[in-house]
């Protein structure tokens, strides 16, 4: 029998097996009562899956059969974790409430020491043992506490910022009331990020009360300039460098216990940030001799800018790629997905090329993990409707991905801007952070502590598309992990930097326990 005949028989057999397995799974689903679905809603991946299958064509029958077989044999899992009632919760909520009542709004390049000194006094009242036993350093309102352990080698740093963004608009409860209502603490900073700040201060307070001595030095760090990417964290890093500190682990905000992380996947998941995309603010300017709007020429400044923006938006010039960390995220999420989604996410070796194309239509957040992004955010032109501008500009915020970093992404845009005779000015730029080794000791330790603290909570690596203070700590630590151990549901995500920011009371005991367990986990290193 010739090889091509053997291959044809194998493809037919695999495809037939895949069809039978898929048919059996479909019949089982029909036999079960369907889960209720809100009217007008459907899983966003259903259409993508159909598109992927059609795009592969009949010639890939063997591969499709293998993928269907793999998806059918992958055991379906369910995220079991929900915060349990705990008698400690209200006491922790009252401490968080007191912290929220302190207005620590920060403004770019504005020195406002009094509000942060007032917040520091409140911390001293709430956590007296921390202030009695740890060495405290204040640098222009930024806090650094040193808890001496049995060794100073390879310490850990727990960090969360003090400052918050401005609170505007009409709130259900005043933004600095710290109201405790409906099972939540209300107010600016309740979620971002005074909850985690409270949790690690409280965790250390309780360990000190037990007479515990950590295996290694522990640092508590909190900047007051994070919300505007100020110099607070760099000053703390410079102080640690002066002391010769080289941490084993830095853990900051960024990821968290995320509810329903991707459409079609239900439950709580520990999404652990392993690197941050780089970022830049760039201005594009078009110039001309101006003139009266009654006799416009061709290629006016705004027309050139509009064409440029349109090309970037409709034909993104950046390459999409599934990085190892993104592949690991989808692979770990796949068992928790319905069959059609499990088929795609669990077989990126086959569906990856198609998913790269359809991902932007499915989820902007997920798509941003695959490529450099450019978002146009500001524009300016003439001061009058009947005057052609001599100068017009648009500004964009860029986020760089590791496979096409700062230098390459900026050069791509510079060349594209030249096509429309635009000048490009870089206002600020920094590259992506090196990824944490998801097979390394620090990530594995965090993963184990999450499992011990939150039974039934799945753990997934996660790409940070935003920015945190942790990026500054890359200079002294190879394992800067982004994970705040609090539950972030749709309400918390909507309230972050928006109206009616809240933090669920029930999840606070778990957050405190996470930091205590993480400190204790250094015994096993």
Q: Any key phrases for this structure?
A:
eight-stranded mixed sheet, alpha+beta
N-C termini distance: 59 Å
Name the average pLDDT: 90
**How would you classify the helix and strand content by structural class?**
alpha+beta
| Rg calculated over all Cα atoms | 26 Å
- Estimated helix fraction: 40-55%
Oligomer: single chain
Q: Which ranges are low-confidence, i.e. pLDDT below 50, for 5 or more consecutive residues?
A: 5-15
**Number of helical segments?**
17
Q: How many beta-strand segments?
A: 17
List the helices and strands and how they pair.
Blueprint: H1 3-31, H2 44-56, H3 61-73, H4 89-100, H5 113-126, H6 128-133, E1 135-139, E2 142-147, E3 156-159, E4 180-181, E5 184-186, H7 194-209, E6 218-222, H8 232-242, E7 249-259, E8 268-276, E9 278-287, E10 291-292, H9 301-314, H10 324-333, H11 339-345, H12 348-362, H13 364-367, E11 373-380, E12 387-388, E13 391-400, H14 406-419, E14 423-430, H15 441-453, E15 459-464, E16 480-488, H16 490-495, E17 502-504, H17 508-521
Parallel strand pairs: 3-6, 3-7, 7-16, 8-15
Antiparallel strand pairs: 1-2, 2-6, 4-5, 5-17, 7-8, 9-13, 9-14, 10-12, 11-13
